[in-house]
Amino acid sequence: MRQDRKRVIAFRDVRRRTKKEVTFIISDTSMSSKGLAVWKDSFDNTVFLDADNAFWGIGPFIPRDAISLYEKFKNRLDREINDFRFSTELSAIYIDPTDRCNARCPYCYVPLKTRVNGRSMSTKELDFILGKIQNYFAGKKRKPVIIFHASEPLLVKDAVFFAIHKYHRHFKFGLQTNATLMKKEDAVFLMRYRVGVGISLDASTALINNRLRPDAANGGNFKKALLALDWLDGYPGLNVITTVTKHNVHNLPQMVKFLHKKRVPCVLLNPVRLTQKNSRGLKPDQDVFANNFIRAVDTAMALSKKSKYKIIVGNFANVILAIVAPTARRLMCDISPCGGGRCFFTITASGEMIPCGEFIGLKGFSGGNIFKDSITDAMASPAFKKIRSRKVEAIEECDTCALRNICGAPCPAELHALGGMRQKSVFCEFYKKIIEHAFKVIAQRKEALCLRSEGLKNLQYQYALA
Ligand code: SF4
Ligand code: SF4
Hints:
Elements (H helix, E strand, L loop, with lengths): L3 E5 L3 H6 L18 E5 L5 E5 L4 E5 L4 H23 L5 E4 L16 H6 L5 H14 L8 E4 L8 H11 L4 E6 L6 H9 L3 E5 L5 H7 L9 H11 L5 E7 L7 H10 L4 E6 L14 H21 L5 E2 H11 L19 E4 L5 E2 L20 H5 L2 H7 L15 H4 L4 H6 L10 H16 L9 H5 L1 E6 L2
Helix pairs in contact: 4-5, 6-8, 9-10, 10-16, 11-16
This protein binds iron/sulfur cluster (2 copies).
C-alpha cells in the first residue's frame, strides 16, 4: 500500500495560546526571495512556509530546532516536490465515450454543437481503446484508473458497462454522470465492480439545481440524482460534484447538510470554469464564494465530528494535503504544472487525445488520435508539452506568491481561452482565502476532520516537532 508523507511542525505552547480564533494575515503573500516566508497573526503567532518545498510551521517564533530541521530536510523536500511536480508518469485516462449529452448545463465546457451532434464510440471501438491502454500500462505495479466522463457516458451505457465488466481486473474505473439515465440495477452493477461514481448535482433544492442542470425530459436532474444517491446509499466510492456559479454560491453550506443526510462521503465544490463564453456571466464573486465555501467546510467538519458519517469537501481536503502532505494530493488542478497531459489525459469520442477534457472545445491541443497514434507519441506531442511547461514560476505575480505550490494557479485551458495561459488564476483571491482557512484548521488541529479516513491511514510522519 502506498504510504504518503505527512509533515508537521507546530508547537504545543502555541496551541495553548491560540484557543481563540486563529486569524493568519496572509493577504500579502508576495515574497521577494526564495526561502521561508513569514506571516504574523493577531496573537503574534507565526506561520512560516518555504513556497518551493512546502516546509511549514506555526508557532510564536521560529525556534532554533525548526530551523535545524529545515536545513536538514530542505534539499530532500526540494527533490521530492520537483519529482512530484514534473514527473510524467500517467496514472489515469479519462474517456468520453460519447460527445452527446441529454442535459443543457449553461456552463458546460463541451460546446453545445458537439453535445447535440457529436459522435459516440461503439462497443468495439471502446474495447480497442482499452486494449491499447492495457498494453501501454503492461508491467506497471499500480492499476491505472479509467474514468468515463463528459458529456453523458450513460447514453452509451451498454458499451461502458461491457468495458467495465471485461477490464475490471486491469483497471480501476470511475464514472461521472448526471444520473438521469441511471437505474437501480446500474447502481448495483457499479458498486459490485467498485466503480467510483461522481454524481453531478449543483444545489440542495430542485429550483436552484434545475436552473443550472436542466434537461429536456425532467426539467433538470434533481429528482433522478436524488434517486441515484439513495441507491448508492453511503457507498464509499461515491462523490458529488457541484459546480459553483453565482446562482448556487449561497447554497453551499445547505448543500453539505443535505448531502450529509444522504450519506454522501465526499463533495467537490468546484468553481465554474470560464473556458467557454457561455459560462463567463456565471462567475461567482470571489469573496462571496470564499465565505460560503468556508462555511460549507466548517459545516462538513461539524457534521463529521458529531455524527457517525463523515462528509468531506474534496477540493478543500486537497488544499489541506497540499500543506501537510503535498505529494499525497489526488486532485491535479492545484499542482503546477497541473495533471493535464502529465498524470492523465482525455480521449474524446472521436479518439482525439487531449491533455484534459477542459481543452475539448479549444483548437490546437490534440496529441494525436488513439485509433492510429500511440499513447507514447501523444505524451511527447507539442500539445501535451505545452501544458506541462506551464508552471507558476513563469507566471507574473504567482512567481513571487508564497502560496504558489498550494494553489497551482489553475486552469491553463480556461486562461488560454481568456487570452493566454501564462497568467494567474481567475480565482486567485478565492484560493488565497481558502488556503488561509486551511492553515487555520491545521493550527486548530482539526485537519483530520477534513480528510478521508482511509487516506489518513496511508499518511506517516516524515518529520514533526509538535
Ligand atoms: S487545471 Fe484545468 S487543464 Fe489542468 S487538470 Fe485542472 S481542469 Fe484540466
Ligand atoms: S493564482 Fe495562486 S499562485 Fe498565483 S498569485 Fe494567486 S494565489 Fe498566488
